[in-house]
UniProtKB/TrEMBL annotation:
Catalytic activity: 5-amino-1-(5-phospho-D-ribosyl)imidazole-4-carboxylate + L-aspartate + ATP = (2S)-2-[5-amino-1-(5-phospho-beta-D-ribosyl)imidazole-4-carboxamido]succinate + ADP + phosphate + 2 H(+)
Transmembrane segments: none
EC number per UniProt: 6.3.2.6
Encoding gene, per UniProt annotation: purC
PROSITE patterns documented for this protein: SAICAR_SYNTHETASE_1, SAICAR_SYNTHETASE_2
Database matches in SUPFAM superfamilies: SAICAR synthase-like (SSF56104)
Gene Ontology MF terms in the entry: ATP binding; phosphoribosylaminoimidazolesuccinocarboxamide synthase activity
Record's protein name: Phosphoribosylaminoimidazole-succinocarboxamide synthase
Residues covered by the SAICAR synthetase/ADE2 N-terminal domain: 16-268
InterPro entries in the record: SAICAR_synt/ADE2_N (IPR028923), SAICAR_synth (IPR001636), SAICAR_synthetase_CS (IPR018236)
């Protein structure tokens, strides 16, 4: 395994932005080199310790899904090798963890699709029997499968802020009715196809988030990462049933170990207030998390 990369440091390309996970570099005017680091964020705070192998995993998983999902909507991949735009000395840093993509005009909507009731969806349902204005049947419990997948968009938050659930009408205000409907319909189609495939590998995709941008011709294009454990809630089918019956959250392939640990940690006797700096992650939490990410990709590719 390559050494863990918390923050990339390419000097041959201008840095556009560092996200919570990805470092984006400009390649000319029209392309971006997206480097997935091994950073992990929880409760929207970036941890100080990297998760070795995570960036490579996320990238390999996104590439796997881009390939599986061709035909529904164009995506941002250029097909050019990421190694071709950096110096010899920089190749090791980006190997396996980068995508060379078209630079798009990002649409400020997180296109969330849910097939199951979990997380903020479950919270909202308990208060209003609906999620993002989508009415749902009464009597659903935590982690219940929905009769049909629903589209529950969110507004993309600024760095350090939490995304905010919004109604479909609100997305119409942001991008107009034609584009809003197109984003919704494509997102649901992508989710359905992915969920059906994952099911054959013994995995449930409870929910996921897509991001879109417009290319130079104004064509709606799928961008960012797709269907990674960072952008999606994956549950192993075998763990799902038991947890669902017991009224518990099904085990997931993501940051659950980190979140659980952060929820119980005490700093001078006090719980962590979920603002930076994050407490130091113990080695065991790091290792278990790395193994979970690995397992998700292995199951998909099996
Ligand atoms: N083809 C593209 N053109 C332009 N911007 C893109 C493209 N693909 C992805 N992006 C943007 O690049 C950034 C990727 O970085 P990263 O995922 O770390 O960001 P983040 O959104 O801050 O974190 P998180 O995903 O954890 O919320 C995002 O802001 C995403 O919208
Ligand atoms: Mg992101």
């Amino acid at each position: 395994m390559t050494t863990a990369l918390h923050t990339s440091s390419l000097t041959s390309l201008p840095l556009l932005a560092r996200g919570k996970v990805r470092d984006n570099y400009a390649v000319g005017e029209d392309r971006i080199l997206m480097v997935a680091s091994d950073r992990i964020s929880a409760f929207d705070v970036i941890m100080g310790e990297p998760i070795p192998g995570k960036g490579v995993l996320l990238t390999q998983m996104a590439l796997f899904w881009f390939d599986k999902l061709t035909g529904i909507c164009p995506n941002h991949l250029t097909g050019d090798a990421p190694e071709s735009v950096v110096t010899e000395a920089e190749k090791a840093q980006i190997k396996g963890r980068s995508m060379l993509v078209k630079r798009l005009k990002p649409i400020p909507i997180e296109a969330v699709v849910r097939g199951y009731l979990a997380g903020s969806g479950w919270k909202e349902y308990q208060q209003s029997q609906s999620v993002c204005g989508v009415p749902l049947p009464a009597g659903l419990s935590n982690a219940a499968r929905l009769p049909e997948p629903i589209y529950t968009p969110a507004a993309k938050a600024e760095m350090g802020e939490h995304d905010e659930n919004i109604s479909f009408e609100k997305t119409v205000e942001i991008v107009g009715d034609e584009l809003a409907a197109q984003i919704r319909d494509i997102s649901i189609a992508l989710y359905k196809k992915a969920a059906m495939f994952a099911q054959t590998k013994g995995m449930i995709i409870a929910d996921t988030k897509f991001e879109f941008g417009l290319d130079e011709n104004g064509t709606l294009t799928l961008m960012d990462e797709v269907l990674t454990p960072d952008s999606s809630r994956y549950w192993p089918v075998e763990g799902y049933e038991a947890a669902f019956r017991a009224g518990q959250n099904p085990p997931s392939y993501d940051k659950q170990f980190v979140r659980d640990w952060l929820e119980q940690v005490r700093i001078n006797g006090q719980p962590w207030d979920k603002t930076p700096p994050a407490p130091r992650l113990p080695r065991e939490v790091i290792e278990k998390t790395a193994a979970k990410y690995q397992e998700a990709l292995e199951r998909l590719k099996a």
